[in-house]
Amino acid sequence: MHNLGTVVRFEIIRTLKKRSFWIAAFAVPVIVGAIGAVVYFSNKTSESQTESLANEQYSLGIADESHFITPALKKAVNAETVTSKTAGIDAVKSGKLDAFFYYPADLNTQTVEVYGKEVGIFKDSRYQTLANQLLTQSASAKTDPAMRTVLQNRVQYNSTTYNNGEIDKGFLKLIAPATFLVLFYFMIATFGNQILTSVTEEKENRVIEMILATIKPTTLLVGKLLSLIVLAVIQMVVILVPIVAGYFMFKSQLSLPNLDLSSIPLDPLAITLGATIFIVSYLMYTGILMTLGAAMPTAKEAGGFFGAIMALTFGPLYAAPLFISSPDSPFVQALSYFPLTAPIPLLLRNAVGNLQLIPALIAIALLLATTVFTISIGVRIFRFGALEYSRKLSAKEVLRRKS
Questions:
Q1: What is the model's pTM?
Q2: Pairing of strands 99-103, 60-64
Q3: Measuring CA to CA, how many Å separate 327 from each of 23, 265, 320?
Q4: Which of 257, 258, 275, 277 minimizes the C-alpha distance to 266?
Q5: Are 332 and 318 in contact (CB under 8 A)?
Q6: What is the pLDDT of residues 228-265, one digit of tens each?
């Protein structure tokens, strides 16, 4: 294993020199920044249009048979009183009025009718908006302050729940352990295909003979595994640093919510379990993808199996509500203990707090055993199949050969 450092350095330096690595790394913060810029300018444009619409003056007539609209509001919008519905409609048709609102005698069973001069498909809605505002504000003026608060749905609530005598933090307690679920998704989705093709690359370039002349297969695969982990961390830092910096620099301009990190509770057990499940799961899937790559003669053939691996990995996300509401169901238990589907259920259940310590340790042990077995099989496949350029190895052939 004295060449392990050489392999790790070579893989990291070779990948860091590739433009595709940096394009993939910076693409995410650039896209997020572009979306943020679009949202910012869109909000600015919408605000300016809303202000211009609010400041626009147009002639208005009102026929109020309900006698609900207060005179003060009519005066505030410079509305003139129209004697009948027919007269109001005729005034709009002839151009004497820009808009006419008809409030029927019974607002419970009859419809408020709005007529206006066409000013564009997006600006025509201003008439109905104003008609509704006049009704709402008139209702507020006719009720006491407490009734107005209830009717306008502005009642404030403060709910407090307790867990073992202490105030429960609610969704805040999910943030820290759920971070490992997000990291696992990011690492596999971003680096999955690169892991798969990292082993077949040398076979396709026909340089594997020279590499194996000086380096053992075990050293080569373990070195690739470690280098991929380092590269994944580098790419994650490259993506997260601009996003975090952009949040603190432009959160006011983009109206982003204020995040108080000090209010996030940190559960040492949940964080430890989440970190352990994340690390072991990532190593297991890295081993699976590298083993698959070692068994295939080309990256193209290896890529055909990539979709199936991703389906097993992220398919359980469709059953996420079941993991939260029915963690003891046989279906959830089966997905939690089967190594190929276990990472998502375990990380999600750990985040919401329904994963007990003993079941978690059993699942982690199964994941670890699968990881060791997969990597050992990968080394064996690579040892016998590294020089196979035209065919993939069969399982019987690998198991029958002696080390």
A1: 0.61
A2: parallel
A3: 40, 23, 10
A4: 275
A5: no
A6: 778 777 877 877 787 777 777 766 766 666 666 666 77
